[in-house]
């Protein structure tokens, strides 16, 4: 009589172990899908001229490295705080596939995708003609006199309040929150998004550090090219990722 309960207990444990293993495999697969989706969205932030141009301009101030590092730190903080808040809010609503709100994630992506398509059309129609430069935001005119503290504040504001960063960050946060991920996996996915999103702002600093005397010439060329082509670049990005989000939204709605 004794061995039977032991056998049943071992069988129960074996089934529980197999179920736990299946759950882990599903989560690992979900992480790969989530990272793949949010990396493409993070590229919109990375390549955005509105984020890169001020990162170049602070390198032409009286304290270039201090200002550039302060701007980068502020930008990282702005992107991370807003993205973390979006993930927390979306997680509190519970957008997981097994919840009653599972279709909300798809609908939200659909709306954000349509918004990006509209923004793409507006950007393309407003692009400068041959020989013209796109007008820069007025606040960039004062960057030449920035202190490290002002650069930090500008980085935070741009990372957190740039409407396009917000739209893309919200879409990525919904992707993270709607997947069946553990807390650790959500944190890791969020860190990957933030890391990729800030690479564009970090790039001018790397150019300055590694190219030395040639850095000014290279950065001037970057600034001129981005200033003239920013509308075209962003319209193409918005169109591509707008279509991607609409596709994801239709699939998840």
Oligomer: single chain
The radius of gyration computed from the alpha-carbon positions, rounded to a whole number of angstroms, is 23 Å
State the helix count.
9
Strand content: under 5%
Uncertain segments are 15-23
When the domains are counted, the total is: 1
Provide the helix percentage. Answer: over 70%
First and last CA, distance? 54 Å
Number of beta-strand segments: 0
Mean pLDDT comes to 80
Report the major sheet: none
* Mass-distribution shape: globular
Order of helices and strands: HHHHHHHHH
What structural class results from the helix and strand content?
mainly alpha
Give a structural overview.
- The chain is an all-alpha fold and about 250 residues long.
- It has one domain (about 35-250).
- It contains nine helices and no strands.
- Helix 1 runs antiparallel to helix 6 and helix 3 (about 65-95) crosses helix 6 (about 165-180).
- It is globular, with a radius of gyration of 23 Å.
- Mean pLDDT is about 80; it is low at about 15-25.
């Amino acid at each position: 009589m004794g061995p039977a309960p032991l056998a049943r207990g071992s069988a129960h444990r074996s089934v529980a172990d197999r179920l736990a293993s299946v759950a882990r495999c599903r989560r690992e697969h979900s992480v790969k899908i989530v990272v793949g989706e949010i990396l493409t969205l993070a590229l919109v932030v990375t390549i955005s001229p509105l984020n890169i141009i001020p990162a170049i301009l602070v390198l032409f101030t009286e304290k270039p490295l201090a200002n550039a590092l302060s701007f980068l730190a502020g930008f990282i903080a702005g992107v991370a705080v807003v993205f973390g808040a979006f993930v927390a809010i979306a997680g509190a609503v519970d957008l997981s596939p097994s919840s009653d709100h599972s279709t909300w994630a798809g609908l939200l992506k659909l709306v954000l995708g349509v918004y990006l398509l509209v923004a793409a059309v507006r950007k393309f129609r407003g692009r400068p003609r041959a020989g013209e430069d796109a007008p820069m935001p007025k606040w960039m005119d004062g960057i030449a006199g920035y202190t490290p503290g002002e650069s930090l504040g500008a980085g935070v504001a741009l990372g957190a309040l740039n409407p396009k960063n917000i739209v893309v960050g919200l879409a990525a946060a919904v992707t993270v929150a709607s997947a069946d991920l553990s807390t650790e996996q959500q944190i890791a996915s969020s860190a990957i998004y933030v890391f990729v999103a800030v690479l564009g702002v970090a790039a001018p600093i790397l150019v300055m550090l590694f190219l030395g005397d040639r850095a000014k010439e290279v950065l001037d060329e970057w600034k001129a090219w981005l200033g003239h082509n920013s509308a075209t670049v962003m319209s193409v990005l918005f169109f591509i990722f707008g279509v991607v989000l609409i596709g994801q939204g239709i699939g998840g709605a």
